[in-house]
Design a protein that fits this description.
InterPro entries: HAD-like_sf, HAD_hydro_PyrdxlP_Pase-like, HAD_sf, Pase_PHOSPHO-typ. Keywords: Hydrolase, Magnesium, Metal-binding. The chain is α/β, with parallel strands linked by helices. The chain has a domain of about 170 residues: Rossmann fold. It has 10 helices and 8 strands. The strands form 2 sheets. A 6-stranded parallel beta sheet has the order 3-2-1-6-7-8, sandwiched between helices. The protein has a two-stranded antiparallel sheet with strand order 4-5. A hairpin with a 5-residue loop joins strand 4 and strand 5. The longest helix has 14 residues. The protein starts with 6 loop residues before the first strand and ends in a 5-residue tail after the last helix.
Length: about 250
């Protein structure tokens, strides 16, 4: 650990970054595979968050309950090494580490899983698409950015429901003074925008064989990526890196 690091921020994407699956797809693969197939066919025609919301309504109409959804989330793959990595870094005496979750999943999916792993209180903020269960048991999901209101101005390729780069900058503005180091753990193409906002002393932990790795290789130099890039495939490797970020 560098001696001048007193405060650091760890930013986590959720699907395939913190967790070892994609929540939006997992729910339907387990509870209604035919709906999952329909989503695969419609994903180029309907905005993804809207498609998940529509699919959750269909799931509800079939009689699937809140308990069905929550139990399915609790058994979703989530590596014990990732639980250890996060818990140990949070509990380390130095530096002070803040955790921030920035995800295109939704608040119910993420909070249910984090609660089941004992990690919900670790995160300073969870920025994602809002969702809540209605009394009927329907999980109602909507975009973080309302499609009828002002839209984000991202030119890097973020999805319409959220610009992760803008959300990261807003978080940093809310939590002054500046962190000495920011570590971003991500995997998807939409994680490229936020890492472009990071500095030379910051680090991205990029999961291998997914969209973020491809974008870094194809666009990183052209877009002026400044932060250090480290690659990982399994959660044990994140635990290994995190073990060197504290004393």
């Amino acid at each position: 650990m560098a001696p001048d690091i007193q405060r650091q921020l760890v930013v986590f994407d959720f699907d395939w970054s913190m967790a070892d699956q994609d929540t939006d797809r997992w729910i339907f693969e387990v509870l209604a595979p035919d709906i999952r197939r329909k989503m695969k066919l419609l994903k180029d025609d309907i905005q993804w968050t809207d498609l998940v919301a529509q699919s959750l309504e269909e799931l509800h109409c079939r009689g699937k309950t809140r308990e069905d959804i929550e139990n399915t989330l609790r058994i979703m793959p989530f590596h014990p090494a990732m639980v250890r990595a996060i818990s140990n870094l949070k509990n380390a005496s130095s530096p002070i580490t803040t955790f921030f979750c920035l995800s295109n999943a939704n608040s119910v999916f993420i909070s249910t899983i984090l609660e089941s792993k004992g990690l919900i209180d670790v995160f300073e903020e969870i920025i994602t698409n809002p969702a809540s269960f209605e009394p009927s048991g329907l999980l109602k999901l909507r975009r973080r950015i309302d499609p009828t209101g002002p839209q984000h101005l991202c030119k890097v390729g973020c999805s319409p429901n959220m610009c992760k780069g803008e959300e990261l900058e807003a978080f940093l503005a809310r939590h002054q003074p500046a962190y000495d180091r920011v570590i971003y753990v991500g995997d998807g193409a939409n994680d490229f925008c936020p890492i472009l906002r990071m500095r030379s002393q910051d680090m991205v932990l990029c999961r291998r064989f997914r969209g973020l790795e491809r974008r870094i290789a194809q666009e990183g130099e052209k877009e002026g990526l400044k932060c250090e890039v480290r690659y990982w495939a399994g959660a044990w490797e994140v635990e290994e890196v995190f073990g060197k970020l504290s004393t």
